[in-house]
Structure formats: C-alpha cells, structure tokens
Write a structure and sequence with these properties.
Length: 527
C-alpha cells in the first residue's frame, strides 16, 4: 500500500405509543444545562479582528495525551498533533508526517515508513524515527486500543527518517491505524515522552495548533493557538480555536443558533430543529447498535446455543420500524456490522423482517413459546432505547427480555466482562474488519466476546484476509461479515448518524462514508 493510494431524530412520538417511544421523547430533553463560559470568546461572526473558531463538542477529553484519548474524542488531539498518515474526507490516505509507506514483501508482516525531514514539534525538537518508535511503544503500553497493535513485535530506526515495524502476526491495516482516526499515528515530541505525565494537560505535537493551558478550563473549554513551529503554515486557518464541552443536546443547539459556537458535533434528536434553523448539516452513518448474543454455547440461556434461535431473533426484529421511529431520516437499518460501501459489506440481505420464519425457527429449536433473555445495556446514544424497542418486538414471540440498564460506562464494562449476562446492548463504530475482529468477535476480543466464542470457518476467513493484498482482502472481508450474519452472533439494528452542524461562515465541514469524522484542521473561515 503506497502513500498516495486509496484506503481503504428521532421524531416526537404520539401519545399512547409503546413505552420505549415515550422514553425516546424523554431522552431528547437531556439531563443538564451547561453554561457557556464568556472567557471562551465569540464566534467567527462576532466582529473580532481575530479569526476565532468556536466548536461545541459533547464530551470532554479523558486526557490530552493522544494515547489515552478515546477515538470518539480524537478531535482534541487532531488540532495539536499531526498523524503519520492523513485520512482525507474522500477516504484516501495521504502523506502527513510520513511521506510514504508500504508493506515490505508479502504477508503484511513488515511495514516501513519514510518521514518528512522538515518537521519540528511545538517545543522545537525534531521529528526522527527514534521519536516515532518511542510513540508507538507508548501507545502499545498505555492505550485502551493497544490491542490493535498487539502484533507489533519490534520497531527499528535504520536511519533518522525511516521506521520499520516488524509484526509477529499479519496486520493489513497499519496505514489506517496510523491515521488521525485511531490516534496511534498522532506523534508527540521526544522530550514530552520522556515525561509522559505532562501530556495529560498540555500538547506536544507537530500539528497546526498548540493547547493554551492558561485559557483552558478542564472539562469546560479547551483553547488552541497556532503552533509557530508548524511545517505547513498555509494550513493554519484560525488565530484561536476554542472547543466548548456541551453535554446537553438542546443546550448545544441553542449555542450554535445564537452564534456562541460555529460548529457542533451534534445529536440526532435535534437534527430537524437544526434543519429548520437553516444550519448546514453534514452527516453519515457511523456506529451500529443492536444485541450481542455472547452466550453462543447456551451456558446461561440454553436457547442461545442453537443457531436457529439466534437467527429467529434476527428475523423477529423490525429494523425499518425501529429506525424510523427513533431516528427518522437520520438512521440506517442494518443486519450486519459493516457500513455500505466499505470492505466487508454484503449488498444482499440475509434476514429481513419475517415473523413467520422467526416462529418456525423457534418451534424447530424447541422454543415455540419463547424463553427469558437477560440483557445488559447502556444509555450512550440511545442504546437502551434501541434495546427497549427490540424487546417490544421480541415479546410478540414469547421472548421476554429482562433489561438491566447501566449508565456508568466503567461499571457497564465490568458487568459485561464478568460473563454473567448472556446478551448485551452493543454500540460499536464501524471499523475495518481486521480491527472489528480484534475488538468484537475473535476469541481474544476479551471485552466484547467475554465467553470467547470461536468458529473455525470464521477464523480461517479472517486469517486469510489478514495476509491478503488490498483487492483480495475486500472479497475475504465480505465473506467474514457474511459468516457472522449466518452465525447470528449479533442482532444489529441500526447505524446511528455522525452529525455536524455548522454556521454559514465556516467551510470544509464534511462527514463522509469514507471518513465519517469531520476534522477541524480542514475547516476554514469563508470570506
């Protein structure tokens, strides 16, 4: 793979509707009103002589260290850290800190990058192969996504601008992992990595901006100013960028309507109102929500050990109805884990909504009257509402869902990994199939496959895809996804949208199927 190659509203429910629809309306109200700090400055249209970009974002960063950020909060790192490889809005992989890259030989086990020679970090220190080596090691040691680089066996720097990564097992998606989307390629300076704790509250990148701690208030707003060392000064479009944490969807909408923010990472519950207000809307499907049936051996719920039962659940759920009720025009029904147009997507449906088929399969498996299914879920992005809607559908077939909702993500993860629940509500971003395997469905996916289910055919297809070139991997990835659908390990229902609202004076705000995350380094003031 070469450096210039291609990479890969809810509607308001009517009275008398089922409980989950009433819950959907309550969910849209939100929990709190976040004050907008006056110290953050005005919007680009405020009349200030400076070019100021104010961004509303729904979550604060866990840390300013790219290795400790969740990918959902990557925006905070992308302002200050250039990645090794840049993923453009059209999905193409483009040079950034690396000028070129490729796998050496066949089998996707040796990967080499050539670095840009004219780069200095914001602290003035140079970009070198040794610094990149230290960054990758830091990511492997500290990141919650470190499993994506678990196969990295050794890293060498044969010369000051060459990095060579040797793998113990094939990994065909290193170019994607070293983009801004996965944070593994967002490189910090050598002096900062020598004192890694400093990265928690300040930036030390080679990106267009630098975090200004003096005008930043943790968990409220984060202020960035231009990086005087930046190698590509023509790409710096603002004199100041302020990211304001706006956790409530309605408060956030009010902020952009009144000009207190210029761009907003938004919630689908306010999309119709944003459209009516004349805001620019960029959106694309991003994360799927559904049930993960982890008790595939039937240890907790014997019915789940029969593939016919798991398939019956897929036939029983009315994805179109649920999607329209909860997301309106902004959701995408799905029975698979991969987005349309991406490697692995299967254009032919396997299930569809077929109540008669669902009843037939349940009867054949010995459960004509259904069974009881305990389910753990979370509240993030309406996951619990989707599961409640699924429960209403399944009840018609005698499947009684006993729902436990855990709003605390850490506790949710602990309960999930304990293995005491046979199924749980899953929210997962659509990723390359190789990454999905590591995080979701392979036996070593410890969080999301707590019972360590395995399937020989699935494992074989995955391993073949891991060593294949781009063209053949696309075909094999499709077979991997098809096998997952046949096994019915999951009951996906909907791809939720990634939404951005922007005011007319800001350009470049894009969310596409090939790059669903709009990147603030692309945004610019319209004259």
């Amino acid at each position: 793979m070469k450096g210039n190659g291609a990479s890969l509203v809810r509607r308001r429910p009517h009275p008398g509707k089922p409980r989950w629809r009433k819950a959907a309306a309550a969910f849209a109200v939100g929990l709190a009103v976040v004050s907008l700090t006056a110290a953050c400055g005005g919007g680009t249209g405020s009349g200030s002589a400076d070019r100021v970009l104010n961004i509303g974002f729904p979550v604060p960063p866990e840390s300013m260290d790219p290795a400790k950020l969740s990918t959902d909060a990557s925006l905070y790192a992308n302002l200050a850290y250039d990645p090794l490889i840049y993923r453009a809005p059209d999905g193409s992989l483009q040079p950034r800190l690396a000028t070129s890259w490729n796998y050496v030989g066949t089998g996707n086990k040796l990967f080499e990058l050539k670095l840009r020679s004219d780069v200095r970090f914001s602290d003035g220190s140079p970009l070198t192969a040794d610094v990149v080596k230290t960054n990758i090691e830091h990511f492997k040691k500290t990141s919650s996504s470190a499993s994506l680089l678990a196969a990295v066996a050794s890293i060498e720097a044969p010369d000051p601008l060459t990095v060579r990564v040797s793998l113990s097992q094939p990994n065909p998606i290193l170019p994607v992992l070293f983009t801004q989307d996965f944070l593994a390629g967002n490189v910090a300076s050598g002096p900062a990595l020598a004192q890694p704790d400093t990265l928690a509250t300040q930036s030390a990148g080679a990106g267009p901006y630098v975090l200004d701690p003096a005008t930043t208030v943790s968990k409220d707003h984060y202020t960035y100013v231009p990086n005087p060392q930046y190698w590509n000064k023509n790409a710096v479009h603002y004199d100041r960028v302020v990211v304001k944490v706006l956790t409530n969807a309605n408060t956030a909408l009010a902020a952009i309507k009144t000009g207190q923010v210029d761009v907003l990472r938004a919630d689908y519950t306010t999309a119709d109102a944003a459209k009516s207000a004349g805001l620019q809307i960029a959106q694309t499907p991003l994360s799927f929500i559904g049930l993960n049936l982890t008790d595939r051996a039937g240890q907790l719920v014997p019915a789940l050990g029969d593939v016919r039962v798991r398939q019956a659940l897929n036939y029983a759920v009315d994805r179109q109805k649920i999607t329209k009720a909860l997301f309106g025009e902004y959701g995408t029904p799905t029975e698979q884990i991969q987005l349309p147009g991406e490697d692995g997507y299967n254009p032919q449906d396997f299930y569809g909504h077929d109540p008669a088929k669902a009843r037939q399969l349940l009867a054949e498996a010995g459960y004509p009257n259904g069974f009881t299914l305990p389910v753990l879920t979370r509240t993030t992005r309406g996951t619990d509402l989707i599961i409640q809607a699924m429960a209403d559908d399944l009840k018609q077939f005698g499947v009684q869902v006993q729902l436990t909702t855990q709003p605390d993500f850490q506790k949710y993860t602990q309960d999930l990994t304990s293995g005491k629940y046979p199924a749980y509500g899953v929210l997962a971003g659509a990723l390359p199939i190789y990454a999905m395997g590591q995080l979701l469905f392979l036996p070593n996916a410890s969080v999301y496959n707590p019972q360590k289910s395995s399937d020989d055919q699935l494992q074989s297809l995955y391993e073949q895809a891991s060593v294949a070139d781009d063209a053949n991997r696309a075909r094999l990835d499709q077979q991997v996804v098809r096998r997952l659908v046949e096994l019915a390990w999951l009951v996906p229902v909907v791809f939720t949208p990634n939404l951005y609202y922007s005011r007319p004076m800001v350009g470049g705000v894009e969310a596409t199927a090939k790059e669903p995350k709009a990147n603030p380094v692309e945004w610019f003031p319209k004259s």
